[in-house]
Fold:
Amino acid sequence: IDPGAAKSGSEVPVGELIGIRTFTPPAGLRVDADVEYGAREDGTLLTLDVCRPATSMPGERLPAVVSVHGGSWSRGDKANADWRNVCLWLASEGFVAASVNYRLVPDATFPAQLDDVSLAVEWLRAPDQTERFDVDPARIGVFGGSAGGNLAALVGAAGEGALDVGSRVAAVVELSGPVALDALGGSSTWLQSIAAAYLGCDASVIVDGGCELAPDASAATHLDASDPPVFIGHVADEMIPL
Structure:
């Protein structure tokens, strides 16, 4: 992560051919770009891209993944090179992938971003969309990286009970997500400042627990025994503290 890359389209704005950048999509994958999944009272149109396998059997319902880009909650896009490759890779593995855009800081602060991603899950589960995209409504997961990892973890922890209704998900994968925004005392001033902007509070109060929304934006606050399995990918030495 490059903290200075405020205008970058990706949260990993380097040129190395690493990770998802080494993936070459096979021919025939289907992409429905800029599909509207909702609108907000301020007129914001919410869109996503759907990536699907080249073919599916008649009547077959596929597992789906809602994919959430990162970028400090203030930048990034569902269709930048890295996240489009994520979408296509998931499709190549037999998933229906929905790569979502959500409202960004400073125009919107928490919980707007969580509301948007949750709406995307609900939209994908609706009968019209499960029929249109051959989605199994009982097998919808969520994947996110960095800021998107925070949102993925929150979607997984929100609510309780059955995992096949509303915005509930059957599985969560998050990479390097800042999931404990109520415990940033030992983190960098950079992370503290972007978390404060996301939460709509002053950076000076987030360290000592004075940011009112920090617990609500931390996944552990919402956990209960009915929540889905979660895979966490992280490394020891990066901008987001382990």
